[in-house]
Amino acid sequence: MKKRSFIMILSLVLVLGLAVGGTVAFLTAQTKTLTNTFTVGNITIDIAETTTDYKIVPGGESAKDPVITVKSGSEKCYAYALVENNLVVEGTVVGTPNIDTTKWTAVGTNGTKTLYRYNEVVDAASADQELAVFTKVSYANTLTAEQVATLANKTILVSGYAHQKDNTDQATADTAAKTWAGIA
Fold this sequence. Notes:
By secondary structure, the chain is an alpha+beta fold. The chain has one domain: Immunoglobulin-like. The chain has helices spanning about 1-25, 145-150, 170-180; strands at about 45-50, 60-65, 65-70, 75-85, 90, 90-95, 95, 105-110, 115-120, 130, 135-140, 155-165. The strands form four sheets. It has a four-stranded antiparallel β-sheet, with helices on one face. Strands 1-3-10 form a three-stranded antiparallel β-sheet, with no helix packed on it. The protein is rod-shaped and about 135 Å long.
């Protein structure tokens, strides 16, 4: 009888335990969802000029004003200008752009191509930044009429490149620009 009483008491305790335990609430909590939205940085550049008429006269000059613009909203960057000067007679450059070396530094040359880096980091976060590459081309005063004739339809090509400043050092940016320009 003791065994039977024990089993009955144990059963009753289990039934009461389940009934009481089922009504006990656990304390819980949860957070709101935190959303992390990422944007992508970018650099937008353009090149333009207002002059279009270039006449070669020995000892003279032609106005030429290529401007690289780093557009507003762009990340801080290193800016580059590639100048391919094809005004060459018998291996001698006879038309020279007046690149302002206080603003631009040559970082590489290959044949008639010279790559220049703007001397300051360009910050166009809130406004376009216009970088004049040069303002004129000067012609050698020793040019003969025959040499001038060989310059017909020759060109000076100018193009721009920009490389992010953040998390990049100048040497790395220079190497990337040289690769882009075919000077590496």
